[in-house]
Design brief:
Mean pLDDT: 88
Structural class: alpha/beta
Low-confidence stretches: 73-78, 81-90
Order of helices and strands: EHEHEEHHH
Helix content: 40-55%
Strand content: 15-25%
CATH class: Alpha Beta
Number of helices: 5
CATH superfamily: Metalloproteases ("zincins"), catalytic domain
Distance between the termini: 25 Å
Number of strands: 4
Length: about 160
């Protein structure tokens, strides 16, 4: 997966940027996505994600991460949630954009009692799954998405204790 990374805050460390990119590459490989697919990641402040949340979701508060999926199917044929050999023929498919609030990630890592790295890795994996069409609107969908998310993060070695 090709990832366009942008830190609007100037506050993300090299190691945290590397972790986010590594988790996304790992998840992409784990899910067998084509190497030439793309997404973008932008790191923002709580003030900026609040603006985005209000403008695009009608929710007047900051949040930790927002995912902007570009589509649910590629040419109406290939389901990116369940990739297969056909995915290799899709050139430079852009799944969408991930926006992470470094402020909210920092707050939540303290609230949950784990590292900022664990929180950033979780948010990156969670939002990638959203780009791929997973959601947690129903109990059944939540079980599927959160189960896969946990499976990927555990395989990567980023457990809740980290």
């Amino acid at each position: 997966m090709i990832i366009d990374f942008n830190d609007e805050t100037g506050r993300i460390t090299q190691s945290n940027q590397a972790l986010i990119l590594d988790v996304l590459h790992f998840a992409s490989d784990y899910l067998k996505l084509a190497k030439n697919t793309e997404c973008s990641v932008t790191i923002v402040t709580n003030e900026r994600i609040h603006e985005i949340n209000r403008e695009y979701r009608g929710v007047d508060r900051p949040t930790d991460v927002i995912s902007f999926a570009l589509d649910d199917q590629i040419d109406g044929v290939i389901d990116p949630v369940k990739p297969n050999d056909q995915m290799a023929t899709v050139l430079n498919h852009h799944y969408g954009d991930i926006v992470i609030s470094i402020d909210q990630a920092t707050i939540q890592s303290k609230e949950y009692g784990h590292s900022l790295q664990r929180e950033l890795g979780f948010l990156a994996c969670h939002s990638l799954l959203h780009l791929l069409g997973y959601d947690h609107q129903t109990k059944e969908d939540e079980k599927e998405m959160f189960g896969l998310q946990k499976e990927i993060l555990n395989a990567y070695g980023l457990t809740k204790e980290v």
